[in-house]
Design brief:
Blueprint (H helix, E strand, L loop, with lengths): L6 E5 L21 E5 L3 E8 L11 H10 L3 E7 L11 E6 L1 H4 L16
Parallel strand pairs: 3-4
Antiparallel strand pairs: 1-2, 2-3, 4-5
Amino acid sequence: AIEGTEYTVTWFNEGFEKDDSWEDKSVGEGCDLVVVTDNKSIMIEVKSSKKDGNLFVMTHNEMVAMQEKGSDYYVLKLNWLERILQDNQPEIIVYKDPIETLFKPIQIKEATFYVRR
């Protein structure tokens, strides 16, 4: 964070590791984390792969949120998550404004469309 800037972080699944009956509280939120300052709000979605994963799934709510937030929406992609078990760092890739940077036909393997009649 910027020094002197007040901010709040909402992690929808904070505390999951202590709750045996945990249910995913990020469902319907469009992201995993929200960071709010006095003049800005950003949304962060985290995707992970045990090894080097080039594919990940985005939900409808995540896609709508990323379209609405534009450059204030980030996808953090963690690859090689298994490295943590060996006290090493995973690879972290940050995608800002993923609608503009990722969602182009050449980068989409498969899509499901809902069409109203």
